[in-house]
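[step 3/7] inverse_fold.run input=structure_tokens len=148
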């Protein structure tokens, strides 16, 4: 298993995972824009035998980092790959001198919330009607990187 920076050639596999993971999936162009035109973006993939099985995006602006998306392909879930990927993303944030990392997660997404809590994230508030597809609230979660 390796975790490395995402490149353009990964995008077809990334899009496939994205479509199986989110109700309003990002399009390939959005990932392309992130890789080539967003100076704050860092995108990692996790790969097994040359197959991309997951990815995680972060934006790092000064000492503040945010997760944009994280997903593992359904067949590989529950085998600690998500945890390994999130730990790698947190390490990237530390290398880039970010001090805190935050994210939004659907209030119904207990699996992801459990992963985040395991890695030290705390709840930080609710964003009402955050998700446009069903009006679901988002739970804001954050972690101090020098304490985790
Ligand atoms: C969230 C996600 C990335 C987790 O990846 P994963 O590889 O399946 O998770 P891991 O196997 O590394 O599990 C790590 C922790 O997550 C939690 N978790 C994982 N699967 C779980 C399940 N079925 N039920 C409850 N908690 C679960 C547990 O806390 C687990 O720690 P443990 O093994 O000590 O119990 C994955 O489920 C996914 O891609 N979901 C769809 C996309 C998504 O919801 N992304 C998050 C958007 S905010």
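[step 3/7] decode complete -> sequence:
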């Amino acid at each position: 298993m390796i975790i490395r920076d995402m490149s353009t050639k990964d995008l077809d596999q990334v899009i496939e995972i994205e479509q199986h993971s989110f109700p309003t999936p990002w399009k390939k162009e959005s990932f392309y824009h992130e890789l080539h035109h967003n100076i704050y973006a860092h995108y990692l993939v996790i790969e097994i035998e040359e197959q991309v099985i997951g990815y995680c995006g972060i934006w790092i602006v000064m000492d503040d980092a945010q997760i944009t998306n994280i997903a593992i392909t359904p067949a590989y879930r529950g085998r600690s790959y998500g945890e390994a990927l999130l730990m790698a993303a947190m390490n990237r944030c530390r290398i880039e001198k970010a001090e805190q990392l935050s994210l939004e997660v659907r209030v119904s997404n207990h699996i992801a919330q459990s992963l985040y809590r395991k890695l030290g994230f705390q709840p930080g508030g609710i964003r009402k009607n955050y998700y446009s597809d069903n009006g679901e609230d988002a739970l804001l979660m954050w972690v101090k990187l020098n304490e985790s």
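[step 4/7] annotate
The CA atoms of residues 56 and 70 lie 4 Å apart.
DSSP finds four helices and seven strands in the chain.
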